[in-house]
Design a protein that fits this description.
7-stranded mixed beta sheet; 3 helices
Length: about 150
Amino acid sequence: MADERTYPLRPILAVSAAIFRDGKVLVVRRARKPALSLYTLPGGAVEIGETLSEAATREVREETALDIEPVGLAGQRDVIVRDAQNRVERHFVILCFAARWRAGELVLNEELDDARWLEPAELATLHTTDGLAEIIAAAAERLARPA
């Protein structure tokens, strides 16, 4: 699958989840490129036949062993990485969900090398992907709205 994601013919649709538990949000550190060593949200590519919510739930379960309840979209990100010749090496469109933790304890897969439950204000102490604090703030706001 890595070959399909490098120099793709079209953008790759992906999802992530800002998961809240007891007022804290889960951030994970990527153990692989393109976001190697950056803290971000768990997530990944949408598979054929999945809804966005199903994909977010599956990706979080695969990466962290957690069961979540996606509540709604909190934002989106475009990740476009160009090589030295200015060719598009990677292009992801990521839809970010606000989610609640439902069950499970953290068990990281090989794509991640750290995970932390943090107060949103603590994000400033970490090296994160672009726009992470804004997405988390939007997710917190989305979760605070009445159903």
